[in-house]
Amino acid sequence: MQKSTSLLTAAMFGALCATAPLSTASAESAIKPTFDTLFEPLVADPMEPRIAVMPMLGKKKLQLDIGTSADLYQNDSKTFAVGIDFATWSLLNRTSNFKFPVDCIDYMFGINTTFRQQIKDSALPFDEASVRVRLSHISAHFEDGHTDDNGDWLHPEESPFGIPFTYSREFVNVTGALSAPGRRVYLGYQYLYHTLPDKISPSSFQAGVEIGLPANAYVAADFKLLPKWDWNEGKTDGYRGTWNLQAGMRLTSIGLKNVRVAANYFSGMSRHGMYFYKPESFTTLGMIVDL
Questions:
Q1: Taking a C-beta distance cutoff of 8 angstroms, is the pair 112, 69 a contact?
Q2: What does pTM read for this prediction?
Q3: Which stretch of 120-129, 190-199, 270-279 has the lowest confidence by average pLDDT?
């Protein structure tokens, strides 16, 4: 893992260097960080870097996401960009006295490149095509409530790897999208080139759609085929469909165009690394901030 993480760090440093000015005579840097990314974050994908507070309905749990993507460089024609991604996805328990002990947390960082092209004279109902390529590292950890008063780990039998275990992944993700004002469709593929635990299928697949509605409302669906863990075989065997359906509204009418209230229905393999082998289903209702 240390070697893979070092390679990713070197790649991030190389991307920063590549976007720097080639001539020292120029006083203006080519690196101009902006949250206005050429590839807009996928609305319904729960694995996008975002700022969100999403309580689960009927369960004393809460999703708290803190992260964002930013383009460090965009060319003048807005057809190419190099950016960075940082994110944490936390699962919190809701208890009395307004306390939220953290069950588990996932950390992600990486670099990305975007290619964007206008579509002209096409029979398709889209006027823009874009591709985003990501190189990322993600790790996950248990936090509160998993040890007894003596510091011993609880319920190791509930995990196929015991508790605790190391979860770490490095991957390449490619997403292509067709879009027009008020609509977008996309397809994606992800390849794991290093993973702990091992014996995980390296491939996963993604598709989705986003549709704008009147009054700044929208609906969106994200679908993934994720590797399914087989307890008896001690490895992933086959795939399971994982849905995240989202309906929401942007608060543009009150001057908060970057804030949306949204309801999600999730069903499939958990997004959290410490539970990646575990299917789950729940509904959330909360707020998302788009930087």
A1: yes
A2: 0.87
A3: 120-129
